[in-house]
């Protein structure tokens, strides 16, 4: 499969020359892409930042309904989750974080219409009615600031217009999967007020099977609604108001069970666990003697079936005043997120480990920017200030080894970890920042950039670790600490010609320190971890060649990654727990290529290739030396491509076809780089074919996602102390049909 796709891509690339000769008289060129990576609208080719942009239509064609769907669509981008509707693990160029606790922050920031989505509880809300998504690679330490040392995902939704519009789309696919989206809007007061309402409903019957109950598992069920109003009382004032709501009522993700404890000497590996040859056999078991032996990837034995209940609400106001040569921009937002998820964590028929995740988060943010707005000025600048007030409350409970309770007189035993452990806490954060960036055109072809930002997070943490619903208090802690840092940017961009530019940049990014938000039983686990910092050096080329038929962008980078916050395992009272600490330094370097080619008027190809070397420097944890190991979620090679073809029909309308493919080489899910906690290289291919009417209003067709039905691991949670690995698998092949209408 891999060789066929590479050969196909090579053939298409070689055919460009002949296609150019055949259509030399035609005005065929790649479309201009406008991005807002630097807080103003600019041509993608003029921005000295590694950025990939996707239109809303391209995301719809690929079946992207949340941030997980972006996985491998851009060079160096990895997105996965072991949860159904929360806590995405986002990595760009190997930089990210696997911590799933609600008070943690990823190294990749998510922004929706300029609003920072801080909580991991809210980062998997459905993507619908999208105008564009931009993937910014590398630290964004000036204009985006805190917790963007890996990069940023910048989401722009579709804005209201004065013209009346109405859209509706329906998909039906394998496992009774239904995806319904719609939007309607238009002018209310001519030239002054326009509104838009958009919604989405996603539902399917689940693609896994519970042999204990006979029920299907991993059901998806959520809905989302967004109301927008664009108010323009004068030519110099524009205000965009939004209200959004999201509710998930689907299943908690049920992983596959893999037993690790060997029952015979022949099944015992050098690490004391079962060797791969004996996985799923009677010679291995977990702590309760269970092993899943049928070899079915989508079937399991579960004593209970969990739900992942998530509710989100947000409101924002984005106001712009044009004040002659400058603009004043205010972005105000308020949101809350609630999660109540019950999870049959052990994935077996016994009550060995079951977790109830109960968390609430609220957030208020205010950003003010003053910026130049003359596109022809030699000096373009932005000055701004940012404030965030966030409160996270968590009351999660881990019910451990419940089936052993009858063996103890009190019905529980802390010494044997037979109890229900909970860790209620409240974390309050007040974040402040001031920033500025200036781009000065030194000559007609040379532009210099300088940016600087100061950020400070005041965090207070009130924590209690307890057992049996508070009957026994194990640990209490009240702490306050301020985490501050300088970040910024230096850069040079030189226009070699009207179609070719080169750049060199230095960026410093940081991720704020904080407090571990999981189960802790010793004070040492709650010692605050410090900021991590990343110094990034990058050179790049952006070009449009062959009479703008080919857009070719190249970049090479080196990262010095210091005081890295590492989410790792440790053994506490005989139970494997997870802790977060500044445990490592790393070096990361690599190169990326992105190309868009307009082969003919009706055929275009997008492709991206990333090479990455991301390894720990010195890293020793719990006596294990991980120095020199690869960072989790950092494959050496990723490749993505999409080919789009249209063919006019004599009777009217046109046929449309899309083929996309993505490849990722081997990835590790753990710092140890153990083979059992990895996924070998895998290809994923999708295709879509359809018909569109002459006026573009009606479109219908069929699609295949994961066309060749590849089965692979997207996340692994290893619970060594209980003798099991929990494997979250990808969604199997989906075949379906769609119907879309636009007015």
Question: What does this 3D model show about the protein?
Answer:
- The chain contains 2 helices and 45 strands.
- The chain is mainly beta and about 750 residues long.
- It is globular, with a radius of gyration of 26 Å.
- The two termini are about 40 Å apart.
- The N terminus is likely disordered.
Oligomeric form of this entry?
single chain
**In percent, how helical is the residue content?**
under 10%
Q: What is the total tally of β strands?
A: 45
Our measurement of the CA-to-CA distance between the termini, rounded to an integer number of angstroms, reads 41 Å
Using the CA coordinates, give the radius of gyration. 26 Å
What would the principal axes of the Cα set say about the shape?
Answer: globular
Q: Indicate the mean pLDDT.
A: 91
The secondary structure category is: mainly beta
């Amino acid at each position: 499969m891999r060789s066929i796709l590479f050969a196909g891509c090579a053939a298409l690339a070689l055919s460009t020359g002949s296609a150019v000769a055949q259509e030399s008289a035609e005005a065929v060129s790649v479309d201009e892409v406008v991005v807002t990576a630097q807080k103003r609208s600019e041509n993608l080719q003029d921005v000295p930042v590694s950025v990939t942009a996707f239109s809303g239509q391209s995301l719809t064609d690929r079946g992207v309904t949340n941030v997980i769907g972006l996985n491998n669509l851009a060079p160096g981008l990895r997105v996965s989750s072991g949860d159904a509707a929360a806590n995405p693990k986002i990595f760009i160029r190997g930089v990210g974080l696997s911590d799933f606790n609600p008070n943690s922050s990823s190294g990749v920031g998510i922004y929706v219409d300029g609003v920072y989505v801080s909580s991991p509880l809210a980062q998997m809300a459905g993507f619908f009615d999208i105008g564009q998504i931009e993937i910014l690679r590398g630290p964004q330490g000036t204009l985006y600031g805190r917790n963007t040392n890996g990069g940023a995902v910048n989401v722009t939704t579709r804005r209201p217009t004065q013209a009346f519009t109405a859209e509706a789309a329906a998909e039906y696919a394998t496992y009774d999967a239904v995806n319904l989206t719609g939007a309607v809007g238009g002018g209310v007061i001519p030239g002054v007020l326009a509104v838009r309402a958009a919604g989405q409903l996603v539902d399917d019957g689940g693609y896994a099977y519970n042999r204990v109950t006979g029920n299907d598992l991993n059901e998806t069920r959520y809905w989302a609604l967004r109301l927008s109003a664009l108010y323009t009382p004068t030519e110099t004032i524009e205000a965009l108001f939004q209200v959004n709501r999201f509710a998930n009522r689907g299943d908690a993700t049920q992983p596959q069970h893999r037993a690790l404890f060997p029952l015979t000497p022949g099944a015992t590996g050098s690490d004391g666990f079962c060797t791969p040859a004996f996985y799923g056999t009677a010679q291995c078991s977990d702590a309760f003697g269970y092993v899943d032996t049928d070899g079915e990837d989508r079937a399991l034995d579960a004593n209970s079936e969990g739900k992942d209940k998530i509710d989100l609400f947000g409101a924002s106001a984005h106001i712009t005043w044009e004040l002659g040569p400058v603009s004043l921009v205010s972005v105000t937002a308020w949101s809350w997120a609630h999660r109540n998820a019950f999870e049959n964590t052990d994935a077996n028929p016994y009550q060995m480990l079951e977790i109830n995740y109960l968390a609430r988060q609220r957030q208020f943010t205010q950003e003010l920017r003053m910026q130049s707005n003359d596109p022809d000025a030699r000096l373009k600048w932005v000055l701004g200030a940012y404030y965030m007030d966030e409160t996270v409350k968590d009351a999660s409970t881990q019910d451990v080894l419940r089936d052993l309770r009858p063996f103890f007189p009190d019905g529980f035993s802390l010494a044997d970890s037979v109890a229900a452990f909970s860790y209620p806490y409240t974390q309050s954060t007040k974040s402040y920042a001031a920033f500025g960036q200036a781009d000065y055109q030194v000559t007609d072809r040379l532009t210099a950039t300088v940016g600087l930002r100061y950020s400070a997070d005041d965090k207070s943490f009130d924590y209690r670790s307890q057992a049996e619903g508070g009957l026994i208090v194990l640990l209490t802690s009240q702490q306050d600490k301020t985490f501050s840092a300088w970040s910024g940017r230096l850069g040079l961009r030189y226009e070699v010609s009207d179609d070719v530019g080169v750049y060199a940049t230095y960026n410093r990014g940081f991720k704020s320190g904080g407090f571990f938000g999981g189960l802790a039983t010793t004070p040492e686990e709650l010692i605050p971890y410090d900021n991590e910092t990343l110094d990034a050096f990058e050179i790049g080329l952006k070009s449009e060649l062959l009479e703008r038929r080919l857009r070719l962008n190249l970049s090479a980078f080196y990262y010095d990654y210091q005081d890295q916050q590492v989410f790792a395992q440790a053994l506490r009272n005989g139970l494997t727990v997870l802790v977060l600490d500044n445990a490592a330094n790393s070096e990361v370097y690599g190169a990326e290529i992105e190309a868009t080619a307009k082969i003919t008027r009706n055929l275009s190809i997008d492709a991206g290739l990333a090479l990455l070397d991301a390894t720990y420097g010195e890293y020793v944890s719990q006596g294990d030396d991980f120095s020199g190991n690869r960072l989790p979620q950092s494959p050496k090679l990723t490749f993505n491509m999409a080919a789009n073809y249209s063919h006019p029909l004599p009777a009217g309308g046109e046929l449309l076809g899309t083929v996309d493919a993505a490849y990722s080489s081997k990835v590790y899910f753990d710092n140890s780089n153990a083979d059992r906690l990895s996924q070998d290289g895998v290809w994923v291919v999708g295709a879509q074919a359809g018909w569109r009417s002459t006026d573009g209003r009606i479109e219908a067709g069929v699609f295949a996602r994961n066309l060749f039905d590849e089965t692979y691991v997207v996340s692994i949670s290893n619970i060594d102390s209980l003798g099991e690995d929990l494997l979250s698998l990808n969604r199997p092949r989906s075949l379906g049909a769609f119907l879309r209408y636009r007015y």
